[in-house]
Amino acid sequence: MTVGATATVLGGFWPQNGVNSLTQVSGEGEERRRIRQELGGMGMLRMREIIRALNGVAPGGTASKTIGRITETGELGGQRPIAAVSLINRATTAADVTEITTDFLTFTTNSSFGATPPANLDRNPLGTR
Fold first, then answer.
1. How many CB atoms neighbour CB 92 within 10 A?
2. 64: buried, middle or exposed (CB in 10 Å: 19+, 13-18, 0-12)?
3. How many CA atoms lie within 13 A of 57 on its CB side?
4. CA distance 24 to 34
5. 73-100, pLDDT tens digit by residue?
């Protein structure tokens, strides 16, 4: 985090309570926050482990992640057994690097329009010509 500008507070709640200046602190950017939100869910847990295994090393490192899951029993109550479930346990490959690059670092590869979007001369939201 970096410290930005300092603002002098002239009146109101803050000066009455002993605060005469406020300092702007800039943290992470909007892009980093959005990526963190996208990767933060359980659905992306497998991808996060592959990214962690590839962080700073060449393909070939082992990506593994095991989580606990409550299993079923025939009883109505009591303690439930917890089984270990392996989400991923394999060596990373060069194809993983390509997939991560395509999914997260390239925004034009999944476009269905080609090089230029089709003309939308009548400005119809459905895209008719």
1. 22
2. middle
3. 13
4. 21
5. 878 778 888 999 988 889 999 998 888 8
Q: What is the pTM of this model?
A: 0.49
CA distances from 111 to 13, 26, 34, 106, 117 (A): 51, 34, 21, 11, 9
